[in-house]
Amino acid sequence: MSALIDEQRIESPPESDYKLPRINPHKTSEIVPWLRTPKTIWCPGCSNGTITRALIDAILGLELDAEKVVIVAGIGCSGRIAQYLEYSTVHAAHGRALAVATGVKVADPSLRVVVAMGDGDCSAIGGNHFIHAARRNIDLTALIFNNSIYGMTGGQMSPTTHTGDKSTTSVHGNVEAAFDLSELAHAAGATFVARGTAWAYRQLVSVIAGGIAHKGFAAVEAMAACPVYYGRFNLTADPAEFLKGQKEHAVPASKFEEGESRLHEQYPVGLLHHGERAEFVTSLARVREEAQEALRG
Amino acid sequence: MPASPILMQGNEAVAEGAIAAGARFFAGYPITPSTEIAETLSRRMPEVGGSFLQMEDEIASIAAVCGASLAGQKAFTATSGPGFSLMQEMIGFAEMAQIPCVIVDVMRGGPSTGLPTEPSQGDVMQARWGTHGEHSVIALVPSSVYECYTLTVAAFNLAEQYRTPVIVLSDALIGHMREAVTLPEPGSLRIAERGIPDCEPGEYDTVMSDLDNILPRPPLGSAFRVHVTGLVYNRRTDAPETGDPEVAGDLGRYLREKIYHHRDAIARVEEYEMKDAEVAIFAYGSVARSAKAVVKWARARDVPVGLVRPITLWPFPTLAVDRMAEQVRTVIVPEMNLKQMSWEVQAAVSGRAKVVDFGRVDGKLITPTQIEELVRAEFYYHDWSKS
Question: What is the pLDDT of residue B50?
Answer without folding.
Answer: 98
